[in-house]
Amino acid sequence: MAKLNDNFRQMESYNTFNTVSEKINDYKKIYPSVELLDLGVGDVTRPIIKSVIKSMENAVEELSKEETFKGYGAPHGYSFLKEAIIKHEYKMFSQDEIYISSGTKTDITNILELFARDSKICVFNPMYPIYNEVCKLNGLNIHVEDASEEHNFVPQIPHKKYDIIYLCSPCNPTGVALSKEQLTNFVNYAKEYNAIILYDNVYENFITSNNVPKSIYEIEDAKYVAIEFRSFSKRISFSGVRCSYYVIPNTLQLDKLKGNINELWKKRVILKFNGADYIAQKGAASSYTQDAKKEISENISYYLTNAKMLKEALEELNFIVYGGVDSPYLWVKTKNNLSSWQYFYFLLEELNIIVIPGVIFGSGGENYIRISALGNKKTISKSIKKLRAYYAKKED
Q1: In Å, how far are 106, 362, 374 from 131, measured between CA atoms?
Q2: pLDDT at position 147 over 50
Q3: Could you tell me the CA-to-CA distances from 127 to 13, 149, 186, 211 in Å, in that order?
Q4: For the residues 255-283, what does the mean pLDDT come to?
Q5: Integer Cα distance of 301 and 347 in angstroms
Q6: SS3 state of residue 100
Q7: Residue 315: phi, psi to the nearest 5?
Q8: Which one has a higher pLDDT value, 260 or 190?
Q9: What are the two backbone dihedrals, phi and then psi, of residue 321, each rounded to the nearest 5 degrees?
Q10: 154 vs 326: CA distance, rounded Å
Q11: Which is it for the CA torsion 241, 197, 329, 337, positive or negative?
Q12: pLDDT by residue (tens digit) across 89-128?
């Protein structure tokens, strides 16, 4: 008799973005004519840049002709994209250490198949929910460590031994980015305990601070202890196209492991993945041209300007705000010690502004909300105007 994987029951269905969407849709049904201002969106709103679109159009044309048609590609990615990534981002690595895929959420969860089922996995609270939920789904030995308000939402070096550590910097949801010193401490910890860091680095293009590394591999010896994940979703508005990449260094080491970790993972990729879309990979490769880089810079600047506007306005209104400097996310403490959900409903019902309740990201996010600067400038400006008007009245 077939049996259900009981680990599905361990997943917390309320701890998802779908719950927020359902509540917003319920509100829309009751008040269909109300204009809602979305500051919760974690998706990009700028269109795919023109130079990338042109490259994708050319790729479609290639597929329409017998002499240039492409079928299945290499499961771990085409060489032309790997070459571009190495030239512009990862000069210290070779093509066989780069993997092209179809989304970081998939990559950073599938990678757990590489490790023993009894591995001790460390995640931090608050966190992007997928880390926690996928560990539950797979029945893995997960432990939650503190990265809460007491520590300015910076993950703290654990006092006990873990085998695998999830790190996200710049962080979704808090917008906090790890400094070189903080990241060095984690690399040193991983070296001491023979641990592996799974480094979620999809927001590296938003980094502006000089003391914040754009890659964990800027830290000495990180190539021995870290797997880094990146994506084209935010950089070139590929969230609807899907193309990502990650690095598994040949130098990655685990005690008592027979064989090269990278080679072992390559076997798994060949077994379970047919490769990312050719058209998407051609578009991604073209994002490294000078014209594309200029357009990308303009889009990132657009979002960071939104973030600056929001941060300055909220701080003027005496909100406590984290993030918004090296990240498109702002992590904002609620007024009057309201819970995350109470403040979510207040903003939705009174000001018609959508945010994400911080508790969605773990108990350490209670009394906070996540605000996104990835919307359009008009929405940002209207939201700021409403917030200023409301709190000006309250002060009167």
Answers
A1: 11, 11, 23
A2: yes
A3: 16, 13, 17, 23
A4: 88
A5: 27
A6: strand
A7: -70, -35
A8: 190
A9: -130, 130
A10: 14
A11: positive
A12: 999 999 999 999 999 999 999 999 999 999 999 999 999 9
The Cβ-side half-sphere exposure at 86, using a 13 Å CA radius, reads: 16
Radius of gyration of the chain measured on its C-alpha atoms: 22
Predicted local distance difference test score (pLDDT) of residue 95: 97
Nearest to 323 by CA among 213, 175, 144: 175
Bridge-partner residues for 331, per DSSP? 322, 370
Q: Which residues pair with 353 in a beta bridge?
A: 37
Tokens representing 351? Answer: 């000001």
CA distance 297 to 300: 5
**Digit-coded pLDDT (tens) for 195-206:** 999 999 999 999
Q: Which two tokens stand for residue 389?
A: 């008007």
Give the span between the Cα atoms of 245 and 228, in whole angstroms. 9
| Phi, psi torsion values for 197, nearest 5 degrees | -95, 125
**CA–CA distance, 16 with 358 (Å, rounded to integer):** 11
First to last CA, the chain: 69
The distance of Cα 279 from the centroid of its chain, to the nearest Å, equals 23
Structure token pair of residue 262:
């990278």
E strand intervals along 176-283: 196-200, 226-231, 244-247
> DSSP of 292-342, one letter per residue?
HHHHHHHHHHHHHHHHHHHHHHHHHTT--EEESSSSSEEEEEPGGG--HHH
- Chain centroid, CA 103 distance in Å: 10
Q: What is the tens place of the pLDDT at every residue in 321-363?
A: 999 999 999 999 999 999 999 999 999 999 999 999 999 999 9
What are the residue ranges of helices labelled H in the chain?
17-30, 50-63, 79-88, 104-110, 129-137, 180-193, 261-272, 278-286, 290-316, 340-346, 377-395
Q: How many CB atoms lie within 10 A of CB 257?
A: 10
